[in-house]
């Protein structure tokens, strides 16, 4: 019996360790250096002899799905590139109400900010606007409205009228957010945080439980409005990746990051910046 290797490709003109167009080392980029796949041999198994079964016998259990490791899950903060220099200079990302004064382009509209300021976090002396907001998917609905040009009352004029490539996506992980959010801890919502229908998880265990439920949900729409809120501020040093739309923006971001003590990797990933009908699987 012989195994046949299929689907293997090679990246020409690049040495191992060299950074590819997507911002990764070539050998670690799933696009430039996809892992080889193999055609598994087909083995016919003898059918076991049939035997009578009791009508009371329990139905065979389905194979268990792998457990979601909540701490490893990426979360995303979307901001205009015009805001990045101030974030790098400060060394931190600020809550909604604080950033509105020095942002070049704010994402939320005046009414959107007012709604977030008026929405109190249950059990805490703070509002949604007192937190740095993250989303659970790079295809969150508020971001989808920007990149598809959809009218959305949550968006400010600058954000609604800007090209998707004018934004950057700052990525970190749930674990890093939980560490940065101490001692009060992060807040997780299962929908848009300023919506009256959204539920809040404000304790460590409740936040982990809600995140596990959202991330294991087969319905992709379950993630599109959910938020992770970090109180007070978020250290820029905890951002591990900045996603950008093209090479031009990547160079702009790299220039801005020259002053950063812990610059994150900058990766070109067009699917994050294309409307839903045009994007590719992530």
UniProtKB/TrEMBL annotation:
Keywords: DNA-binding, Glycosyltransferase, Nucleotidyltransferase, Toxin-antitoxin system, Transferase. GO terms for molecular function: DNA binding; glycosyltransferase activity; nucleotidyltransferase activity. Residues 43-65 are annotated as: Disordered. Pfam families: DarT. InterPro entries: DarT. Signal peptide: none annotated. This is DUF4433 domain-containing protein. It comes from Orlajensenia flava.
């Amino acid at each position: 019996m012989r195994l046949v290797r299929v689907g293997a490709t090679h990246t020409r003109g690049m040495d191992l360790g060299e950074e590819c167009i997507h911002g990764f080392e070539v050998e670690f980029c799933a696009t430039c250096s996809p892992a080889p796949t193999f055609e598994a041999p087909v083995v016919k198994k003898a059918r076991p002899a049939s035997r009578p079964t009791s009508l009371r016998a329990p139905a065979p259990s389905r194979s268990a799905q792998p457990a979601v490791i909540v701490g490893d899950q990426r979360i995303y903060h979307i901001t205009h590139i015009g805001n990045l220099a101030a974030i790098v200079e400060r060394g931190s990302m600020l809550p909604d109400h604080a950033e509105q004064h020095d942002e070049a382009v704010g994402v939320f509209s005046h009414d959107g900010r007012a709604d977030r300021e008026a929405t109190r976090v249950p059990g805490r002396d703070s509002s949604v606007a007192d937190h740095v907001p993250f989303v659970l998917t790079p295809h969150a609905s508020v971001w989808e409205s920007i990149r598809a040009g959809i009218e959305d009352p949550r968006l400010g004029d600058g954000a609604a009228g800007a090209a998707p490539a004018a934004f950057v996506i700052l990525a970190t992980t749930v674990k890093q957010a939980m560490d940065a959010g101490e001692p009060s801890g992060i807040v997780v919502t299962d929908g848009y945080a300023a919506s009256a229908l959204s539920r809040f998880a404000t304790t460590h265990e409740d936040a982990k439980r809600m995140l596990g439920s959202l991330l294991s949900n087969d319905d992709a729409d379950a993630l599109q409005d959910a938020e992770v809120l970090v109180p007070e501020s978020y250290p820029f040093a905890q951002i591990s990746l900045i996603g950008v739309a093209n090479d031009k923006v990547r160079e702009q971001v790299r220039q801005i990051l020259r002053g950063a003590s812990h610059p994150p990797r900058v990766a070109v990933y067009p699917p994050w910046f294309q409307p839903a009908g045009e994007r590719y699987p992530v």
